[in-house]
Amino acid sequence: QAKQAGKGCYTILTSQMQFQALERMQIEVELQEALEREEFCLYYQPIFSLKTEELVGFEALVRWQHPKKGFLQPSAFITVAEETGLIEAIDFQSLKIACQQIEEWKNTVKVNFPLVVNVNFSARQFHKQEVVEQIKEIYCQAKLDPGVIKIEITETAFLEAISTAKHILEQIHSDGIQICVDDFGTGYSSLSRLHTFPAETLKIDRSFINLLDDKVEGITIVSTIISLAHNLGMDVVAEGIETKKQLEKLKELGCEFGQGFLFSQPLPSKEATELLAKYVPIRI
Ligand code: C2E
Ligand code: MG
Ligand code: MG
Ligand code: MG
After folding, report:
1. In this structure, are residues 164 and 197 in contact, taking their beta carbons and an 8 Å threshold?
2. Nearest residue CA, atom 30 of ligand 1?
3. Residues around ligand 3, an ion, CB closer than 5 A
4. Which of 91, 239, 259 to mutate to test the pocket of ligand 1 (most atoms within 8 A of CB)?
5. Which of 2, 129, 176, 206 could form a disulfide with 146 if both were Cys (CB 3.0 to 4.6 A apart)?
């Protein structure tokens, strides 16, 4: 096609591709530096019980304070991090920060309810046996009970390298870490395998929650996912709740938990702490 469009066009395409390749290489180098300089931080999006409207936990979401480009969202770097394998180190750093944060909350806000912090892990982590020990080391170092952490993994992780991933997830799970299937419904359907994996929570992808506003089919799809999860003994979290209507529908359908801009954006540590302090009676 480029040939057909003439030589000039071909050249433009090539230099654009070169530019993209260079940009990626630059991000890769910068990511490596960011890990060393600890430029990553976490934002915390509150997760609520839809029934009682109580705060039940947070999802930790990585952010990059880039020395030149400023504050970056995951969309600006996660793909390159995945492709270069640097995502693994980023995930461990995120888990470390989350554990330190929980430890701090235990001491300062005196959390006295079973608060859980969800941490996202790349699917590629579950191809390697070492991940089991690496995770354990991090929460042991923070002197935390593994029950306060929930690992979120996208649906794909449950499909790729099936037996290895399953075996590794089972070990992490038997150590006491809870597991959440993230973005459910966006991958290739893993319906037939879902029940064989150790996971207590299923998170419905935002794209389905969006459908609840005006599409009858949306209600059917979400209701089916919720029933499936419940039949498998799993809790359900709806992600990306933005409207009252979506919330009302989800309550009707028996969805237990939710997060989304309707309740709160992901919050910096300080604001998450303030929110927590409001919910938790301080005991001395
Ligand atoms: P995710 O795990 O599905 O996280 C939910 C994303 O939806 C977050 O985007 C969150 O800010 C956004 N969100 C929450 N509520 C709403 C809403 O009501 N409306 C809309 N439009 N969006 C909402 P964010 O923080 O940009 O993260 C994007 C993705 O990056 C995450 O999707 C997750 O897959 C990945 N990610 C974030 N942190 C980490 C990490 O530490 N490790 C790994 N491997 N992936 C991470
Ligand atoms: Mg997630
Ligand atoms: Mg998600
Ligand atoms: Mg999502």
Report:
1. no
2. 74
3. 182-183, 239
4. 239
5. 176
Pairing state of beta strands 55-66 and 40-49? antiparallel
75 pLDDT band (50/70/90 cuts)? very high
Is the beta carbon of 155 within 6 A of some atom in ligand 1? no
DSSP tag of 232: T
Distance CA 67, CA 64 (A): 9
Helices (H), 109-215: 130-141, 162-174, 191-194, 206-210
The two three-digit tokens of residue 116, written as one number: 């859980």
pTM: 0.92
ipTM value for the complex: 0.97
Bridge partners of residue 62, in order along the sequence? 42
Decide: 55 and 46 in contact? Cβ < 8 Å. Answer: yes
Structural contact between residues 58 and 44, judged by C-beta atoms closer than 8 angstroms: yes
Query: How large is the average pLDDT for residues 180-201?
Result: 83
